[in-house]
Amino acid sequence: MRPLFSLMLLILIWPTPIRAEPVRYVLDRDRSRAGFVVQTAKEEISGSFPILEAEVLLDFERGSDSQIRVRVGAARVRTSLPLAGQVIRGRDMLDTDRFPEMSFESRELRISRTSTPLNGDLTIRGVTRPVRLEAQIFRQRGTDPGDLSRLSVHVTGVVQRSDFGITGLRNLLQEEIRLNILVRLDSADN
Question: What DSSP assignment string belongs to the chain?
């Protein structure tokens, strides 16, 4: 009888696994950028936009509770060719006088050990389209294994500029825009 009582007592006091809550992160604005590359007839033009705001909630146990919302400053584009920035801000391209920002909101994020599919809605020039991007999530240098308080997120993907009404320079610029986004995050609890 005593072993049975001990087993019942052990079951009652044994800590039950508690599901970890999603972790909210804040953007390290100075070390984050939304980069792009577009091919011209002769060369690549690369550039970047500042990330103005990011709301990030990551659930490492169940990715379905993860959410990402990002606002990017289209009007503050920087490019590898100085005059290209003026053209990109123009009416036939991003039309930043009317649409100074772009945004992304995730619909589905499945966190895995390698590449993480990131499905969501991208808005450029007031046009919203579904996109599928790939994200890789890393601990930042100098953090201990298992420490998820400081992360780097590298997002890549390709979008078609005509999907968003970017029609300028059709004879000069290719249709594909390659995205290369680096976001540095700190846990909101730090």
Answer: -HHHHHHHHHHHHSPPP-PPPPEEEEE-GGG-EEEEEEEESS-EEEEEE-EEEEEEEE-SS-GGG-EEEEEEEGGG-EESSHHHHHHHHSTTTT-TTT--EEEEEEEEE---SSEEEEEEEEEETTEEEEEEEEEEEEEPTTPPTT--SEEEEEEEEEEEGGGGT--TTTTTEEEEEEEEEEEEEEETT-
